[in-house]
Design a protein that fits this description.
This protein is mainly β. The chain contains 3 helices and 10 strands, in the order βαββαβββββαββ.
């Protein structure tokens, strides 16, 4: 699955100054209770999705979906460059001169594996014999998807 670069997050100061806190209901509530302030706290999506603004960027997924990871074409992926990629992480990496979304595997060999049924049988995973040559741009930490309304 290919991605297109959408840009970086703003600075931490900008995000803090423009924070919007949304009521968060974590227990079942009655319809009449929705007009009252929730007993729980509120939620700031910036704090949830962008813990490190200086190292965060956004990409839009394009093309074949990563079905097994529930990433679809058109989704916005939040990517954190400050994280060290670990085995099993979904990462943004370079594949054939373009950025792509793949799963990083470190055992038994270092490789990037597409998580798409269509590719699983026909495409050999991108194997990097020398792990130091593997170009991982960041770890996908969140997926933002807008649902179509019927």
């Amino acid at each position: 699955m290919r991605v297109s670069y959408l840009g970086t997050s703003e600075s931490a100061a900008f995000i803090a100054a423009n924070s919007v806190r949304i009521p968060l209901y974590s227990e079942s509530v009655q319809l009449s209770d929705l007009s009252q302030q929730p007993k729980d706290n509120s939620l700031d999506l910036n704090a949830l999705c962008i813990p490190n603004p200086a190292a965060t960027f956004f990409v839009r997924a394009q093309g074949e979906p990563m079905e097994r990871e529930d990433i679809h074409s058109g989704d916005v992926l939040v990517v954190d460059r400050s994280l060290t990629a670990r085995h099993g992480d979904i990462v943004i990496a370079f594949e054939h001169g373009k950025m792509a979304v793949m799963t990083l595997e470190l055992k038994p060999d270092v490789l990037l594996r597409p998580k798409n049924k269509a590719y699983a049988a026909t495409v050999t995973p991108v194997i990097k014999k020398d792990a130091s040559s593997l170009e991982v741009f960041g770890v996908v930490t969140s997926v933002v998807r807008q649902l179509e309304r019927g």
